[in-house]
Amino acid sequence: MLDQISIEEELKKSYLEYSLSVIVGRAIPDVRDGLKPVHRRILFAMHELSNSYNRPYKKSARIVGDVIGKYHPHGDSAVYDALVRMAQDFSMRDPLVDGQGNFGSIDGDAAAAMRYTEVRMSRLTSEFLGDIDKETVDFRPNYDNSLHEPSVLPTKVPNLLLNGSAGIAVGMATNIPPHNLSELCDALLLIIDSPDCSVDEVIRRVPGPDFPTGAAIYGGQGLLDAYRTGRGSIKIRGKAEVEQQKKGHELVVIREIPFALNKSSLVEKIAQLIGEKKIDGVSDLRDESDRKGIRIVLELKRGVIPDIVINSLYKFTPLETSFGINMLVVAGNRPALCNLKQVLEYFLDHRKEVILRRSRHDLRKSEERAHILEGLRIALDNIDEVVRIIRASKTPLEARQNLMDRFELSERQSQAILDMRLQRLTNLEREKLLEEYAELLKLIEYLRSILENEEVLRGVIRDEVREIKDKYSTPRRTEILPSLEGIDIEDLIPDENVVITLSRRGYIKRTPLDTYQQQRRGGKGIAGVHTSAEDFIQSFCTTTNHQYLLLFTNLGKMHQLKVHQVPEGSRTAKGMHIANLLPMDKEEFIATALTIREFTPDRYFLFVTRKGMVKRTEIDLYKNVRTGGIRAVNLNDGDELLDVKEVPANAEILLATELGMGIRFSVGDVRPMGRSAAGVKGIALDGKDRVASGVVFGDPERNQVLTVSANGFGKRTDVDLYRLQSRSGKGVINMKVTHKTGHVIGATSVCDTDDILLLTSANKIIRTSVGSVRNVGRAAQGVTLVAMDDGTQVIGFDVADGSNGENASENAS
User: I need a labelling partner for 539 at 20 to 30 A (CA). Which of 156, 161, 401, 720 fits?
Assistant: First the structure.
């Protein structure tokens, strides 16, 4: 009768056995030599073939064949891939294989077929297999019991932390970064001298990983967690620097990239983001990398701030990436999560075991040799009698027995005397034998001291660690930075006064305010933006670099930028098209630009439309802006957004129309509404009249209305001359509009110390003092602010603080 087997129990048992097999025999490295079985078998097969660093290269196919035929019964591609990785200087901090031929690239190119490449062990790898023939490690049968292979290598190198490891097993994974050998040796020496030292003391010797590709890592809590507990996360940043070119051009050059990042994929990602305008201001992208190192070049357009481009690279590309550290290892034939000190302690325990086993082996061999030499010494002291006994004996066996009986020798000593060559009877050979015997006695004493004295054992390990450090250590490649919160991009940009200029066709630029000199009223102005015949300046405002620039479109949407993100341009430059910065519909343009420093509750925006609608909404509702913008106000059919102002709760509003009308009412007449509301009527318009501007009065010192017309006329009027009305009325006369003055293009609140900047359709800009503009009544037509050429008009203006302005200049050009 067949035995009954529970399927559930059998599956559970089989799965556990499979899991353990994958963990121990495939995916997780041994804590002692830092190798997985396939790597260990490759190195042992190369050792067996005498494929060392000082011997000729051998075909990779020869090595792979030996490995899969003798020790690793898997596919040749698995073995060759592991061999290739051990030869790549961008994958291993200190490669274990010296390769000749094409072993792939950091761009992700595959290695040449194994029949074309050649390999041998690196010089460092010789330290992995030293003393393997001295019974220092256990050997186990290979897969078919025909040979034996080492269960671990007797390495002198802390390879697990030196080259790191990554692997995914069943239900668990490991990810250990590479480190610097010199720092690891310093930590080992600390633990040897102070076994009770804390993990933090060890961390001071090993401050962080050291990747073969360099770059920089941010330490902080994530790294401390990894070293203290075995799990943590760090940030890796590639290194980008700015290079100055001729004619003022600047380059952003990436010279180091994060570990395990495919360089070709990084370049493709950057190119994609440049095409999508997420990384702006780049005119050309080139990969100039060669065998000397990485060099990815981004050529910047004139006026672009390099730090903004670098910040965008870190934000949107894998040039900054996270590395999750998980120090899971096989210790005692089972998985274990170790901290930094425990990993090093396991390695030192392994070295102790190797040295003890090596010492026992050497002691046994030395004692055996000393035993032989004692017999030879006796024979040399009694050589005549020895010769006589040998000549009197009938057979070698009889001679051996006679010598044993006469001189109380062992069988091995007696046989050594019989095997001794006659040349050993010379005086010189006798001295050599006695000298060798004396040296052996010293060696035996030293080996016994290692086995019996813990302090001597620690001294041997200490000397080995120092020797490894002196022979193989290299300078650190990866820079360690204390924390990710370093310098904010805005800290690199001065918060200076600038002018934002935006044309109707969407060209925007940022220009230092100092560019525009103050002139006397009536001057012709200096050359401004060079636009095409079909374009003109739509928005014109003064602000500072660190403020938010809120761009409101004629269709009622809002987009948001920081002012410093707007490309800088000269006074006459056309600027960059807004489509390079923001997604815009075909029939959409920026109606008005507004700047604020922060979004806070209990502050309000006032929206004004061309058809006289007004709306008041909390500023705080506009702080979260999507990439495609947000709906700022709903518009009635045929209407469009004209202006947006920030208004205090106790402010008053003046709406000025193109045909010279104006209405003044309290902001309290406009109740607060939601973000998508359409608003209420602010002024009743006659005929084809449209609202030209919305003016906010909240500062008692700014109690004058400056009105500007298309033909360059302007006037100042005290706000008290406009009687306070309820909203939705027709209002009163604001300015006498004639053919001479042209229609009103806008109005604003001013004080005597302000400056006014006016922009003409001839692309001239004049900056003059408000104090030079005469204060008159409501119905006056004003005075000439700027001398207009035939066919030109004033198309925009803004007010700037003129308290620190320069002396007026008559003939600025």
Answer: 720
